[in-house]
Amino acid sequence: MTLTSPSAPAQRRQTLVRQVIEQLREQISTGEWALGAKIPTEPQLVEALGVGRNTVREAVRALVHAGVLECRQGSGTYVISTDELSGVVARRLAAAEMADAVEVRRAFEVEAARLAALRRTPEDLAALDAALRDREAAWASGRVADFVEADAALHTVIVAAAHNAMLAELYASFGAALRASLTEAMRGALRPDRYVAHGELVEAIRAGDPARAAHEAGAFLETLQGA
What we know:
By secondary structure, the chain is mainly α. It folds into two domains: 8-82, Arc Repressor Mutant, subunit A (Orthogonal Bundle), CATH 1.10.10; 96-225, Up-down Bundle (Four Helix Bundle (Hemerythrin (Met), subunit A)), CATH 1.20.120. 70% of the residues lie in helices and 4% in strands. The chain contains eleven helices and two strands; from the N terminus they run αααββαααααααα. The protein has a two-stranded antiparallel ribbon with strand order 1-2. It is elongated. The N and C termini lie far apart (64 Å).
């Protein structure tokens, strides 16, 4: 039996679809289409990209399947993650126990804190100080959503200070779970008994003490898991 290859027109079509997928990804990765934003309509994409309707439809469908876009009946198509990895992680976390999510956070954040203590730069320390101040101000505001965002921002700065691009990318894909775990721990209110200071964690990184930084990060997550 002889296997035949796809026809040249079919191959060209698939190549064109892949090119359109990359163009759509670029719009998302560069922030042209922000997280949560509605993307242009199919006719608008056809005109902007200079391709056929079926090509646009296939490319959008591929990104929907990857978890990057979401089609909402009667409303349009929206950006729900910045890349395929984030989409996959979001779907997996939706079915995970919160305790599992916290344990994965521990794996990321303890190592990130340890590396940050070894590799932080003066610029990193300035960013950490600013993020810590924002976190304190958000707690004082009494608004759960503001505090969750400020806390997530501080941990993202710590991961950035580790200067490991792969760790930063993987951690970014975990952002939704990070916020969800803290929101659940707060249970709708910023009560004093749920407050966990992060000053010692930042100071351990400043002091260049990887063991203490890792301990502080791990202790925080133990507190969160037991909340």
